[in-house]
Amino acid sequence: MSRVRVLVGTKKGAFICTADGKRQDWKIEGPFFGGWEIYHAKGSPVDPNRIYVSQSNGWFGQVMQRSDDGGKTWITPGSTEEERMTDFGFPGGESNKFVYEGDAGTHRWYDGTAHPWEFKRVWHLEPSLTDPDTVYAGVEDAALFVSRDGAKTWTELSGLRKHTTGQDWQPGAGGMCLHTILIDPTNHDRMYIAISAAGAFRTDDGGKTWKPINKGLVSGFMPKPEAEVGHCVHRIAFHPSNPDRLFMQKHWDIMRSDNAGDLWHEVSGNLPTDFGFPIDVHAHEPETIYVVPIKSDAEHYVPDAKLRVYRSRTGGNEWEALTNGLPQKDCYVNVLREAMCVDTLDDCGIYFGTTGGQVYCSPDGGDHWNAIGEHFPSVLSVEVQSFK
Amino acid sequence: MVRITLPHHLRQLAQVGTEVELDVAAPVSVSSILDALEARYPMLKGTIRDHVSHKRRAFLRFFACGEDVSLDSPDSALPDSIARGEEPFMVVGAIAGG
């Protein structure tokens, strides 16, 4: 029997929500790591019982958690007696040790002055498509790290941060975070990442070198609106069957590229506003995409007090509001960039969580929505694992 | 035997009770206490002080015998009553609220 497992990260802990393939009746477990901010939790596509979690707060910094049994039990990798007795030869308890390679140098601060690179937290975890022990981490201040031992130790892929433009990157209001990591399923040497507010980058050599892919983006807040870097990219998504076709939710503007990011064009079309955070692609319809428009960069809540997901079946430009089951009055929530995902069951399920603590599921591609829960802490991330 | 009290979240992380007791080699200092604590509970590495620089995290403070020793040299010897376990060494988190 098909089923799904939804991993919800909130400002006060993680939750695991499970249901059968109908996705109507939900069992909610948690909070795990209560009181901590869970920026992201994601399972390995190779071994779904392997789940990685980024846990942090302002007092105690970063903690990594890993489950090898689908969320029943958790360890901080490398800290248990059993894990410390392995042959890797490293000291235990270094799963939260993120050290920039070499002289970290500086980037630009909000006021334009040079500011030292400082690790703050992990925003995004992207498990490898082929090895459950390999996982990538996108961190603040923006850098890409990789672990090849189940998150026990981390190494920076420093070619990104040491790109010639790195010293000119600046943070967005939420910090200078690397929040999007996409691995090309047809060519594992090709990856895409996005940074607020540096823009999008691509590697074609497994992370050694990186190329800004921001041509076609126009950001009115920048002194040079079409500059090579400096764009506040909020999210990028692709369909695994066509990883050269990218969809982007930028600070403002929905963008599309048909050539792996070499050139972008706008597909905001008839949306009520093109500001927002998440974007995702239907699991079986590569031209069907979803966004949640937000009123503006100054007012981070849905327009007209109505929570509406917008769907385009044409890869952009032509959008329809999806409202069945969602609050259509007195609603003032936001949906953050990590807080939308899709499952891969035959009837593709769409999921998202709000800053107001609601997590919704549509088991039919967006036509109807049901609340998995309406009283979670503020939701930071939502991921789903599909079991057929 | 040195007694160490930890804030709630670190107790949860290390899965310990209100107080931890550890053997710490003399001279007992903030550094030697944290070295022993992290060796016994490696999941606490990086949560109290930086992995590399050993700089105390900004929202934490250290108390010994009612005195704030956060700004003292981490290698300074702590009072004998801490070393003998008569008084706890306290790791205290900044209060959040409003």
Quick overview of this protein structure:
Chain A has 388 residues and is mostly beta strands.
Question: What's the layout of helices and strands?
Answer:
The complex is a heterodimer of chains A (388) and B (98).
Chain A: E1 3-10, E2 13-20, E3 27-32, E4 37-43, E5 51-57, E6 61-67, H1 81-84, E7 106-108, E8 114-116, E9 121-127, E10 135-140, E11 143-147, E12 155-156, E13 177-183, E14 191-196, E15 199-203, E16 211-212, E17 233-239, E18 242-250, E19 254-257, E20 265-266, E21 279-281, E22 289-291, E23 309-312, E24 320-322, E25 340-342, E26 350-353, E27 359-362, E28 370-373, E29 379-387
Antiparallel strand pairs in A: 1-2, 1-29, 2-3, 4-5, 5-6, 7-8, 9-10, 10-11, 11-12, 13-14, 14-15, 15-16, 17-18, 18-19, 19-20, 21-22, 22-23, 23-24, 25-26, 26-27, 27-28
Chain B: E1 2-5, H1 8-14, E2 19-22, H2 30-40, E3 60-64, E4 67-68, H3 80-83, E5 89-93
Parallel strand pairs in B: 1-5
Antiparallel strand pairs in B: 1-2, 3-4, 3-5
Question: If you had to describe this structure to a student in words, what would you say it looks like?
Answer:
The complex is a heterodimer of chains A (388) and B (98). Chain A has 388 residues and is mostly beta strands. Chain A has 1 helix and 29 strands. Chain A has a 4-stranded antiparallel sheet, with no helix packed on it. Chain A has a 4-stranded antiparallel sheet with strand order 9-10-11-12, with no helix packed on it. In chain A, strands 13-14-15-16 form a 4-stranded antiparallel sheet, with no helix packed on it. In chain A, a hairpin with a 7-residue loop joins strand 15 (199-203) and strand 16 (211-212). Chain A is globular, with a radius of gyration of 20 Å. Chain B is of the alpha+beta class. Chain B has one domain (2-93): Ubiquitin-like (UB roll) (Roll), CATH 3.10.20. Chain B has 3 helices and 5 strands, in the order E-H-E-H-E-E-H-E. The termini of chain B are far apart. The chains are: A mainly beta (388), B alpha+beta (98). The interface between A and B is medium-sized, with 21 and 22 residues.
